[in-house]
Amino acid sequence: MERVALKVPLLDLQPQYAAIRADVLAAIERVCDSQHFIMGQEVERFEAEIAEMIGVAHAVGVSSGTDALLVALMSLGIGPGDEVITPTFSFFATAGSVARLGATPVFVDVRPDTLMMDAEAVAAALTTRTKAIVPVHLFGLSADMDPIVALASSRGVPVVEDAAQALGATYRGRQAGTIGTLGCFSFFPSKHLGAFGDAGLVTTNDAGLAARVRRLRNHGMEPKYYHHEIGGNFRLDALQAAVLRVKLPHMPAWNAQRRANAARYGELFSQMRQVNVPVEPSDRVHTYHQYVVRVRERDRVRAHLASRDIATEVYYPVPFHRQTCFAAYTHSPDAYPVADRAALEVLALPVFPGLSGDQQAHVVASVAEAVR
Ligand SMILES: *Cc1c(COP(=O)(O)O)cnc(C)c1O
Which domains does the chain have, with CATH numbers? Predict the structure, then answer.
């Protein structure tokens, strides 16, 4: 039988959009008719709805996931002379936001099983200057939070969760992003819940911090034209909030589809010892923002998949301790063997909601051709 050409993108948002198109256009029309574009009712309602869904007291809509991290760290008063511990293996913004405030990012290596922050490494990196710990819930799985939070509490250090990839993920029954002192989410279009542009969210159960984040989001202003501290323009647009409100109720079903796709990959890869599939510890629900396998000769496997019309991505090829812009914060670049190895082996396969069984079978068959 002749092989049928089957193209597999890394992410296709069209099936999702097709299912909600009329609702999205109605929401956009509602905002256009109101001619109210910055903050306001749409933003307030979105904040209340998402806070209710993930079980947190306060949710503050902001302009992006990066700005969520920045304003969360600002609300803790972090600045020059302060140290903030981050994993070395994450998206740039996790450490970039620390450095932008003049504080010092302190990188720690990650765990070999989950590729996330290792509490023992954090313990070794703590100093009297440590002002925050930023675990990252990478690829849709929560980091192992209890040991990190215990360590942080014992030293009176706040925990800022980078939950940009983990909306809907749980850890011991609690939602990622609601466990630490503050949580930061991104609604970049490719995330679990994607806006039609940039958007983000800060969550917290601390009323004082929530008020401070709200003030910092709008130039530190309260009341109008009275500035107690220097904030910025980190506001969420009404149009983005309106789109997010349409999508939010669908998010659990989309996450369930990602989990079903991951389970199917798990079965299909079960006989292929050369492919290490992602782990899901029994105390967590993984939402598979990315389905990241680990393989030897990753670049060769990736090139083979590309030749079969299968798109993949490498999250992330360069850990923080090897980034040029962070050289000043890296004293021993060879001290992160787990992250260095992960950077050579990780490969994200398509897992988006709407990915067909045929497409998945094509991905797995093509991986098998490459690794045998
Ligand atoms: C996407 C992402 C961010 C930044 O979010 P933006 O909305 O793109 O600014 C931060 N951290 C992690 C881990 C991310 O994946």
Answer: 15-249 (3.40.640.10), 250-371 (3.90.1150.10)
